[in-house]
Amino acid sequence: MKKIDLTQGKVIKVLTALALPIMGSSLLQFTYNLIDMLWVGGLGSDAVASIGSSSFFTGLGYSINSLVVIGAGIKVSHAIGEKNNKDVKQYINSGLAINFVISIIYALILIILGKSFISFLNLNNEFVERNSYYYLAMNAPILFFSFFNSLYTRIFSSFGNNGDSLKINAIGMIINIVLDPIFIYIFKLGVVGAAVATLIANIVMFILYRIKSNGILHYDKSIGIDKEKVMEIMRLGFPMAFQRILFTVVNIILAKIIAIFGTNSIAAQKIGLQIESITYMVIGGLNGAIASFTGQNFGASKFKRIKQGYYTALLLGIIYSMIMSIIFIIFKEPIIRLFIREKSTILIASSYLQAVAFSQSFSTIEMVSNGLFTGLGMPKIPAIISIVFTVLRIPIALVLMKTLGIQGVWWSIAISSILKGVAAYSVYLIKIRRNYKDVK
């Protein structure tokens, strides 16, 4: 597999080359989500709510999986920066082994405990609860392949090789887009049909990653598993994984609160999140780019270059997120009408976009800073920030909803995002400048 040296060349050119393929992958994911939501939205708000309800628990799986994705990504990029090929392969071997165990265990949990998970939300809608469980059960095999695809993507990124990931993701998304209407409407499988299409697409992507890696992603029996490296990966990945797990658990609790206002509110949040992901297409690209960029340059001890990359990514991200905030405020209703026709759902989704529009720039600061901290091998910092302010969403929501109703929940999300952005940049100014004098 091609390896790109991120320690040389103009910073903005290197970051752009890294970020664009990630953004392209995110754009493809958004395009798929858009089309998927359009197809599912045609079945009504209950169908959207079914997928929205189950998505909290699939999201929990991805949060757990980040234990290995983040830890392996950090160590592989550091080893590449140090030009230690033996360590590169040992970390990949260890990552594959951990990933296999996590994917099998979580798939079984979804099948066995899926109904209990959905019941916890108290949806009070038999149709939505039944379809939510069916969709969740179908995600058991999906997540097995998707977990590996996430790890493969991160390893490719550590090598600076995001172009191949973009191509593979493009193929997967196209397959998904083509198969969605076939399974949803022609075969009349409804929301289960959407899951079947996603499963097939992930299997194809899994195969393509294995082929394109030229053996680098294959488990090497001659090297085996280094227990110390397994523990290194888990130690590095645990803080961010715990943060993401807690973030998802908080969202599940918020979903339980949102369900008080009816399944239309759950559908509205699902639609709002899909629209908001337009911002994260770019910001997620910058996050991944700065993490890989920082990782290799940290391994090469080029701290001044790390600072240049961080501020370049911040500038690009803030400009873009401010533009998106304006769009969310001015054009929220026309955009939402693309997904759904029920007036009540449109009004609730509009209030969601109105609230989160004010936090987009702060979310950008948080995500770019997270990429920097992750690349430096300091994942505890973003984990602590996220844990503290994400948990605050629950009491803030409970207080604000007394006077603002469902909008109080939306504003709890926006306020916590603003606080996380402020905290992340403050920690950068205080801790990173103190520890790395060359980054002043």
UniProtKB/TrEMBL annotation:
Membrane topology: Multi-pass membrane protein
Keyword Nucleotide-binding belongs to the record: no
Subcellular location: Cell membrane
Superkingdom as given in the UniProt entry: Bacteria
Keyword tags: Antiport, Cell membrane, Ion transport, Membrane, Transmembrane, Transmembrane helix, Transport
Statement: the UniProt record of this protein carries the keyword Transmembrane helix: yes
CDD domains, sorted: MATE_like_1 (cd13140)
Chief location bin: membrane
TM region positions: 12-35, 47-70, 91-113, 133-156, 168-186, 192-211, 245-266, 278-298, 310-331, 351-369, 381-403, 409-430
Family stated for the protein in its record: Belongs to the multi antimicrobial extrusion (MATE) (TC 2.A.66.1) family.
Function per UniProt: Multidrug efflux pump.
Annotated protein name in UniProt: Probable multidrug resistance protein NorM
High-level lineage: Bacteria, Bacillati, Bacillota, Clostridia, Eubacteriales
